[in-house]
Amino acid sequence: MPTALPFNREHINPGDRVCVAVSGGADSVALLLALHEANAAKRDALGVGLSVVHVHHGIRSAAESDADLAFVQDLCIQLDVPLHIHHADVPARASENRETIEEAARETRYAFFRTLIASGHADSVLTAHTLDDQAETVLMKLLRGAWTEGLSAIHPIVTVSAPGQRSGKILRPLLASRRSEIESYLLSRNQSWQTDSTNADTTYTRNRIRHELLPQLRTFNPSIDQTLANLAELAREEEARWQSELSRILPQLLLPGKPVRGGGRAVSTSPGVNSISIELERLRALDPALRRRVLRAAVRQLGSRLSFDDTTRLLALAGFATLPTVAARTGAAVHLAGGLRADRSARELRLAREPS
Question: Quick one: CA dihedral 108, 17, 193, 137, positive or negative?
C-alpha cells in the first residue's frame, strides 16, 4: 500500500474520543481516512474512539448539500464510523447577527463542536485545515490589518472550555500538509471526494485570495505558501511570549475606577458601566511596544478591541504620540469605537465603556 498520509499525533492519545469534522471535501476525507488507517495499524496503532461530525449549512442548493451529506453518510458506513449530523440555517444567522456567510458558517460549526465536547461525545474535534488554508488565512488577516495575534492565523490546537462543562480540544493535524499532497494520497487509495461549488465563487474573500492573489504572489516567491505558514508560527510564538509578560505586569498597572479625595478609588455602580485607569508615569516607564500592548489589553478587559488608529489616539492623549486632532492635556478626552471613552487627568489615563 502507498505511504500513509502523515498527520500530527500530538494531543491525540490512546482511548480518546476523537471526532473528525468531514464536509466531504478532499482535505477532510483524507484526514478521516488517515486516522482510520492509523487506528487499524498493526504497529503503533492510534487506539482512539473515532467518529465524524458533518454540518449541513443550508448555504448552497438543497440538492448539492444533500449530496455531500449522503456522501459522508456512505463513507461512514463503509468505514463503520459513527456520524453526528447538524442542520443549520447559516444565511439566516448571518443576516440576524450581521455576519458574513463565512463568519456565520464558522461560528455555527464551532458552536456544534463545543456541544459535542461538552456532552461527552468527543474529547477533541479534528478539522482538516492545511498549509494552504494557513497561507490564505494569514493573507486575509494581513489585508484586514491584523495584529500579531491575528497573523498567528490557524492554531494547531485550541482548548475549548466553559464553566461547569467538560473541556476538550480543537486539533488541526494537517497544518503541515499541502492540498496537492492530500489529493495525491486520496488518488492512491482510489478514494473520491466532493467538490463544493462555492469554492470557485470569487465573491468570497478567501476564494479571491486562493484563485487570484496567491498565484500572483507565487510568481515573486514560489514558496510563498510556506513562507506565510512560517510567519503564522512565528507570530503565534511571539504572541504567547507577550501574553506571558502581560499576565505578569497587568495586575501592577491596571487600577479600577478613578481616585477619590481622601484616598481609595470609586467604581461606578451604574449597570453596564466599567472603567480602568493607568497611571501616566507607569506608562512612561514602559518601552513603546509594551506600552501599546498594555493599552490594548486594558481595553480587552473592558470587552472591547482597539484598532491601530484608536491605539494611536490613546497614545496621543497620554502624551506618547502626536496627532493634530488629540490634545495631550488634563481634562482632554477621546471617543473610540465600541462605546469606549478615554479621559486624561493630571496623573492617569482612564478608560470607560458604557452600555450602548
Answer: positive
Cβ of 313: how many Cβ atoms within 10 Å?
Answer: 20
pLDDT at 269 over 50: no
Fold of 257-353: 3.30.465
What residues contact residue 14 under an 8 Å CB cut-off, 6+ apart? 46, 47, 48
Largest distance between two CA atoms of the chain: 80
As a whole number of Å, the end-to-end CA separation of the chain is 62
pLDDT bracket for residue 265 (50, 70, 90): low
Q: Rounded distance, CA 84 to CA 128, Å? A: 17
Average pLDDT score over residue span 227-248: 96
- Per-residue 3-state assignment (H helix, E strand, C coil) for 201-261: CCCCHHHHHHHHHHHHHHHHCCCHHHHHHHHHHHHHHHHHHHHHHHHHHHHHHEEECEECC
Residue 311 has a pLDDT of: 95
Mean pLDDT, residues 175-192: 96
CA neighbor of 278 nearest in space, from 300, 250, 305, 301 = 250
Whether 152 contacts 106, CB under 8 Å: no
Cell of 62: 438543497
Q: What mean pLDDT comes out for the span 305-325?
A: 94
Are 21 and 113 in contact by the 8 Å Cβ rule? The answer is yes
What CATH code would you report for 17-239?
3.40.50.620
45, 259, 304, 355 from 266: Cα distances, Å: 61, 6, 22, 19
**Sequence-distant (≥ 6) Cβ neighbours of residue 182 within 8 angstroms:** 5, 26, 27, 30, 130, 174
Domain with CATH 3.30.465 in the chain: 257-353
Percent of all residues in the chain with a pLDDT value above 90, rounded to a whole number: 77
pLDDT greater than 70 at residue 262: no
What residue spans in the chain does CATH classification 3.40.50.620 cover?
17-239
> What's the whole-number mean pLDDT along residues 86-101?
89
Residue 346 has pLDDT above 60, yes or no: yes
Whole-model pTM: value is 0.88
Report the distance separating Cα 329 and Cα 326, nearest Å: 9
